[in-house]
Structures are given as structure tokens and as C-alpha cells.
Amino acid sequence: MSNPTPISSEPAQRILAAAQFAAEKHAQQKRKGAAQEPYINHLIEVANLIAGSSDTLDTELVMAGLLHDTVEDTSVTQEELAQRFGNDVASLVAEVTDDPSLPKEARKVLQVKDAVKKSPRAQTLKLADKISNLRAILASPPVAWSLERRRQYFHWAKQVVDGLTAPNPRLKAEFDMVYASLNNSANL
To answer: How many CB atoms lie within 10 A of CB 117?
Structure first.
């Protein structure tokens, strides 16, 4: 058995530091679905989708996938992210962070309207997030969500994704497949 070619452990260490930070900050959060999965599962899924979306690893984008909800959903600030993980990671997170001071419906409208303005890397992050959210609705929909509410979420997510000007081809294909399962699922 031959030894693998040595590579730097630095990217893995940075990604794991972001994962640990996200796990600590989201420790008390659960997904909205009936199964109440730990929220970190969503963040790991988003990061994993990003990592698999290209033949080369974009360490900062994977880190942003893990951290993409910290500013929106916890007490973490953009400045704290920049200090701990660098300006690139913080900027990517900022591109996909909704303004929590706005009403929910206004935030949803802005996601559709602003999709076209996102950088290609932020579009990859946004697409991975939407895939994870749709998968979660299929696997464990929120108890209070009617069939119509679930359908509305799917259609809104598609509007956001349709506004992306440079969607990652692998993730776009996955999104389309998950979206198509809307009508094939027993849950919808």
C-alpha cells in the first residue's frame, strides 16, 4: 500500500474551525421540520453540497456555507466573522444574509429581486442553501405547513434560483431534480 501524496492540512483545519464555530453558535437551534433535526445538519449539508460542486476546493466558500446563517440567526456580527475567518468568508456570508429588520415577506421578495446581483460564488452558496431547504421540506416538513404552504415555498425557491445569472451547473442540476420531486413526493 503506497502512502498518499501529502497535502497541506490547512484547508481542512480552517473548514473544521468554521464548522466548530457554527456548531457552537447554532447549538440550541433545531430545523423547523417535524423531526426537529439539529440545525448544524443543514449547515453541514450546505457546505458538503458546495464542496462537491466543483473539482477544486474553494475553502472559503465551504466555510461560508457553514457560517451562512450565523449573522442572520445568532448574535455573531460581520466584523466577528471577518476577524475570525477573513474578509472573503465574511463578504460571502454578507451576500446571502437577509436583513432581519425587514418583515419576512419583504425579505423573500428581496431574495428574488437580488438574486441577479449575487457574485457567482454567492450564487453557489444560495443554490446549495435552497437545495438543502427543499430536501428538508420533503423529508421532514414543518408540522404546521399545509400542502399548499410547502408548494409555495418550492415555487418561491425556484424564483430565487431562476434569478441567478451564473448558477453552478452541478448544483443547478441537483436543484432541478429536487424541485421536480415536488409532485412525486408523498409529503407534497
So the answer is: 11
